[in-house]
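Hello Y.,

Per our agreement to keep a running log of every chain we model this quarter, I'm adding this entry. I've kept the format consistent with earlier entries: sequence first, then predicted structure.
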Amino acid sequence: EYAANHRLYGLGCIGTFGRPTLVAGARPRLGATGSVTLNNLNPAATAAVFTYGYSASAWAFGSLPASLAFVGMPGCVAYASANEVLLVGASNGHSTWSFAVPPDPLLFGLEVYVQALSFDPARNAAGLVSSNGDILTLGW
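Predicted structure for the entry above:
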């Protein structure tokens, strides 16, 4: 059974404004609009970065989950393969990514792995902190 749903996993790393946290929004139903919200951003931030991919076990740099210390983000973890990267507007410490889910029945049951990054120049050399992950299962 593949009902459209969100499954949150992992933990974001500690940032200046708390731990950036993905929370489930609208379910990713075929032919509808789904959403994911990122909380605990810098209240002055006007954008956040959302990534999505099709694996939670491997990415271009090896296996997942993986430490992001090698890119200047010690204590942060990559949970998703990040095949696509999106800049999404933010306001008052929150950012919501809304996305259209095609009505194609061949997508039924597909899992998409989402993670987000918050701009946080005071936290580390990269100026970013990562969120937890969200597994989106496309369904009815």
